Fold each of these.
Amino acid sequence: MTDSDSGKGLSLDDVRGAGVEASLRPTTTGARIAHLLQRDGVGATVVLVLVIIFAASTVDGFGSIGNIRNVLISVSFPAIIAIGMTMVIVTGGIDLSLGSVYALAAILCTKVLDVSKGMGGNAIAGIALALGAALLIGLVQGVLIARVGLPPFIVTLAGLYGVRGLVYFVSNNGNDVYSAPQSGAFYQFGTGTVFTIGYPVVLALILYLLAHVTLSRTSFGLTAYALGGSEDASSLMGLKVRSTKIRLYVISAGLAGVAGILAAAYSQSGTPDLGRGFELNAIAAVVIGGTLLTGGAGSLIGTAAGVLLLGVVSSYINLGTDLPQAAQAVVTGAFVIVVVIVQRYLNRVQRR
């Protein structure tokens, strides 16, 4: 079957018709509730609100401005990565390389700044190199997946290891840690605030808004949903199957690069172990937010709720319990299992 990149004569309603969601209108009260909880991250948002209320009422200082600010800053970097992960998973794909791309961007950016300290640090060159490398990685992976036809899991798993190896190569086998100047525009980019809200949080919010509009209001985004519903049907409809896939992997890697640059600006350093497991945390947030790993359904609102939920749980464990840090991984795994079980139950109820 050939890929058509013409896309001519298609309306947004045509594209919506190729998605996997919803063909049956719920008829019973239980089915309507199940349908509501699965829409646009409503279920994840409800759970998030309940967990916040519980944590704030049981842990002193949890609801303080300082702790809220810390939680928002800590989740802003993985939140940006989760945007790209959501967009890829919606098509039925996956990107396991994002944590490594995040680390590479941070290392490249801070290395350029470190090397050029005597000249005041060249932030523009560092950002350009880091972002360019991230976009190139996304392009290569997208071409291998969309044009060559290799499975996304295999391609991005290779990317996870290959890019991480590149991180260690750039950092002299992991022995070098680079630092950026503690002043200037790059420093302000990571540590500045807007009405006491950190720049990383503001940037994450802007990116979520742009990505949400792109996925839900443009033919490009709706084509992504259609691919997750049925790639064959999308191709028969004349949708831009291959080019859409390639662009999504470029966007995904580019967002990981932006997150890495932002993390470097915030911490003013780059280390080779940065971002380990971030891709798995992003997948967990996406699943908790209600996006189907099979593709065709999901929302960035749900992903945002999933990211915040993991951040709130992490903060609760740190402040309100004596559990070790490793307990966060256990809780995250439990959340994912529970969410998948609930999704299956809601799907059954909705069909009644």
Note: Residues 241-267 form the longest helix (27 residues).
Amino acid sequence: EAAELRDEIARLLEILEDPTRLDQVLIDELGEVAKLHGTPRRTVLLAASGAPTAAAAPLEVPDEPCHILLSSSGLVARTDTADPLPAEGRSAHDVIVSSCVTTAHGEFGVVTNHARIIRCQAIELPTVPLTATAPSLTGGSPAAELWPLEKGERPLAVVTFDPDSPGLALGTRAGVVKRVKPEFLVRDSWEVMRLDDGDALVGAVELPSEDVNLAFISSDAQLLHFPASLVRPQGRTGGGVAGIKLAPGASVVWFGAVDPGTDDVVTVGGSSGSLPGTEAGVVKVTPLSEYPTKGRATGGVRCHRFLKGTDTLIAAGIGARPVVAAAASGSPVTLPEPDPRRDGSGTPAAQPIAGIAGRAGSHIAASQE
């Protein structure tokens, strides 16, 4: 028996060492399996022609005009039409701090507080349908998920790449103002202003025309507005010119383009010792027409009287009536009725205010520092 096993092992080793014999054994055994367990073929193999079997599908989104909207809570979306935006009603994430018009397959720019403009595609944004009430960006996307923002960088405004646009107006924390007609570079992003160390943009707006005013509001409650024509446009690497004369220790909390005939001023007084975003403060609404126009690089006019326990503006904004406000969560905050006293002290706010703007973004880019 041992001899028989040795002979069988030797025979099998010869098969394993000879690839040709091994292949034949496998073929024979697979043939036996097919005879015993095979079933009729249920597929047909066809010779490939080499031609592609798929064709490009037509784009489902028509290239129609649309609004690009940026909310005070940092959400971005586009509308499905460029019809006028409704101004009635209140809902979450409805404080639109900036808007522009492009097409569904068009491009637009986002200006950030780092004085950078980012090239963006409208088709990448979620769509919010227009209804009978003011648009809500609850279904929008957070800006940080759409674009590669740096640490501490946030969007201030959305702008067009229209070569016939009057250009952008920019204002910084240190009170510098600049007008620029940005070059449209073949890049994903580029600089629109040279900032000094420690400075940052607090507001940016695409000018609707030359016939508007530019306005600053400082932390010590000084408001200055002057014609945009007093600022000569510079190239994108220019550092701007003096906009508002600041007192020692003061900084700009809001900058934008304004219309004294239709706009209201919102100021929120609070304590400089409170943690940002935790104090509701006292809020006041006053028509911008109550504040006289002054020259560029002057000190402005007092726009809020500080009572005991308040020593700074914790939020401010100017917008077309009706001005609206929201908390950091995007929930609406009710504002008081307009007070004609330009240096009134205000009334207690219901909750901390994080965003202020005119309805439908109008021509305003609101900010809070």
Note: The longest helix spans residues 19-37.
Amino acid sequence: MNAPLNISMPVEASQAPKSYKLLIDGKHVDARDGRTIERNSPGHGFAVSRYAQAGAAEVDAAVQAAHKAFEAGAWPRMKASERAAVLLKAADLIEGRLEEIARLDALESGKPIAQARGEIGGAVDIWRYAASLARTLHGESYANL
């Protein structure tokens, strides 16, 4: 778990940065104006990733799609155990890609790989904690997560 970061796999200076799109209404889309944000490795000096840069139109579309999905979707009608299962699945998916996500985080930010692994592991813990709350909420909510 504390193995050093090997920058030769799979991102190298000679490779194009990995591109990521926005997820809006279940579809991966580019920003309407085509704008992107490029993240460079401060420690190695090459582009690591490129993200579609959301503007007001994309934010509005995403909020509208999320509201529609919540109102028309299954989530509000799910049993607590079903909601917990969805949140646990999210935790498992993140944990299954922990090394990949931590590596990208370390390359983009310049932080030590051990720190990035710890932060991603912490995110997994928060998803699991939220899953436990899905089964135990009884009229109270916790705003400071």
Note: The mean pLDDT is 89.
